[in-house]
């Protein structure tokens, strides 16, 4: 929960919802016979999650650099902490992407041609 708050709730909570959506879609895909539509939908959602994470990082870095510009000089520790926080959204987006891709691989393997 702490990382969700640190990464910025505007970007992290939608990523959490997208992860839940991907998991629900994958469970639905495993239980039903029609997997082609599910695979396409999971693929689109996971790609969106990845891009959403990078957008969060870009906006966070722009905001941080604006703050640094207005303050002047900052310590390297503060800069490192800010960079760590800016990497949380793309990391979580990548996790959503990888979970979805792993599910797609399994669904494709189990799919009957």
Account of the protein in words:
By secondary structure, the chain is mostly helical. It has one domain. It has helices at 2-6, 9-31, 36-71, 76-86, 88-110.
Pick out the low-confidence regions: none
Radius of gyration: 18 Å
**Which sequence of SSEs, written as H and E, runs from N to C?**
HHHHH
Write down the domain tally. Answer: 1
How would you sum up the global shape? Answer: elongated
Give the overall pLDDT as a whole number: 90
Distance between the termini: 42 Å
Please give the number of β-strands.
Answer: 0
How many helix segments? 5
Structural class: mainly alpha
Major sheet attributes? none
Strand proportion, as a percent range, falls in: under 5%
Proportion in helices: over 70%
Short description:
The chain is mainly α.
